[in-house]
Amino acid sequence: MNETLEILVEVNHVWKSYGKIIANEDVTLNIRKGEIVGLLGPNGAGKTTLVKQIYGELHPSQGEIKVLGGKPTDGKIKRMMGVVPQEVTPYGELSVYDNLYFMAKIKGVDKPTAIKNVEDVIEKLNLKDRRKTFARDLSGGLRRRLLIGMALVNSPKLLILDEPTTGLDPEARREVWFLLKSLRDSGIGVLLTTHYLDEAERLSDRIYFVNRKVIAQGTPMEIKRKFSLYYEVTDITSGKVYYVKEDEVKDFVSKLEGKFEVRLPSLEEIYLKVMGNDS
Ligand SMILES: Nc1ncnc2c1ncn2[C@@H]1O[C@H](COP(=O)(O)OP(=O)(O)O)[C@@H](O)[C@H]1O
Ligand SMILES: [Mg+2]
């Protein structure tokens, strides 16, 4: 079957506090080559704090983080990552091309490689028609695409995106999902944070569900299973909706006359349930 998957990120029992506020509590997780890992949690759950430690901008208060075999604060390791932080924008007064090129230079890519990588990114991200456009004149979706491009100019092995689709319209969100999947398929490890359930569910190969600490982890399906104590049964004839315990569904529907529909609750419903109990 599969060869052993390469581990890109190891987070081991990490705690991070700001004074009295504990943002991350004993977090352990990993990311492998060629997978998209979603860090899902509500605002204030500690997602940004955690990813900042993974890309070497913050130090853990306790615990250990290993990225690409080294310390995330090491310049050499940093240059092998691509990062799209929360709430950044490209330089409005620079063209698409120049934003990409200068980012490559900032990341220490040599000139011939920078020129080549920028062309590759422009091609892959379909920015050809926009190469001379000032970043300030781009739509929100294109601006976000450029930011992802800027994270890719050093050919990273690991891409980290903090809320990559927040504020985008549905079409632009889908574009970002499609792009991230194609990057995953090309062998890059992707870590993204999101508070969107549908995004985590559709995009991630694995999810870590966090609210200060890791509340659950697994594939979207496993997460659903773990928390779905109830099935939603809709009696189509009467239009009534029932929440029925897993082991009672069979009995329950056998008593319904006419058409019915049974489904697992959405991650949204699960999410609300868990957050309600554990925040
Ligand atoms: N620089 C900071 N100083 C003090 N508290 C902070 C700082 N950054 C974040 N926090 C707090 O840490 C918690 C986690 O924040 P954050 O990591 O930004 O969560 P998320 O990205 O999931 O919304 C929140 O309670 C937030 O207010
Ligand atoms: Mg955040």
From TrEMBL:
Keyword Iron-sulfur: no
UniProt-listed InterPro entries: AAA+_ATPase, ABC_transporter-like_ATP-bd, ABC_transporter_ATP-binding, P-loop_NTPase
SMART domains (UniProt xref): AAA
Domain of life: Archaea
Cross-referenced SUPFAM superfamilies: P-loop containing nucleoside triphosphate hydrolases
UniProt keyword terms in alphabetical order: ATP-binding, Nucleotide-binding, Transport
Gene Ontology MF term list: ATP binding; ATP hydrolysis activity
Domain ABC transporter positions: 9-236
Family membership noted in the UniProt record: Belongs to the ABC transporter superfamily.
Name of the protein described by the UniProt record: ATP-binding cassette domain-containing protein
Organism: Sulfuracidifex metallicus DSM 6482 = JCM 9184
Taxon lineage: Archaea, Thermoproteota, Thermoprotei, Sulfolobales, Sulfolobaceae
